[in-house]
User: What shape does this take?
Amino acid sequence: MNKPTACFLTRSDVADDVYGPRERSAAARLASITGNVSEAEVILASWGCPVMDVKFLEAAPRLRLVLYAAGSVRAFVTDALWERGIRVSGAYALNAVSVAEYTLAVILFSLKHGWRLMREPGGSGSQIPGAFGATVGLVSLGAVGRLVRRMLRPHQLHVVAYDPLLTFDEARRLDVRAVDLAELFRVSDVVSLHTPLLPETRGMVTGAHIESMRRGATLINTARGAIVREAELAAVLESRPDLQAVLDVTDPEPPVPGSPLLQLRNVVLTPHIAGAIGPERRRLGRGMLEELRRYVRGEPLRWEITREQVQRMATP
Assistant: This one.
């Protein structure tokens, strides 16, 4: 087994979260570790990875593979990278696990109207939908949306989904009912957004969608704030205190001082914690070490990303 030369390339504040002592020892068994990008055949990267443009690649003449232990790779991949034939693999599917776990917890708590009852502890439970037979709407069935669907399976829920790329056979296999976006908002007790931020998805969720939601319904956003027209969202939430929004992302992030999202009682803001945080990030690092092991053995990579796939990935 020929050991490639590998280099770690991460922000200092997340380096140990992603590649701790155990992970670094495993990397050293698989590769010769260097501190110089100029010597590296493989880069073990994570948050803080620089844009790999022509200038960067000139300084990394031996580079053949980038293993990215984080989410979307759109922030650093370039045409120059692909044209050099450099391979990229990423832990987006592993980061999706944390997002899906967060989402599952919020969905189930929302179906119990937990947020309202925290504000109004003496409130009535007669209008609480609960999980049995309730309807959950998933907007987009990418890596996160599909994991959320899988985690919802043990619960006796109806699941509807909006995704322009969803085929009839996929909908049947996932046991979801495909609907358009307007219907999804009308029929769901909880709507969860998992759409990547692309030019065509910016502002796709309007005030009219929010206004059409069932009484007592909840909107969850763990995708990107700019998918929602936030001024319209805030206006509807102010006029309809029965609705609830749980926002892990906003636009901008965090909200500017004075934003109504900071004042409304029916808004819960969490500080972009749905994705992997703290020790959860080790899952991403270990996943990329498994990719390194496959690379060393000449095996196919499990999470390799193509140039075409990047166009459908989220903007970080």
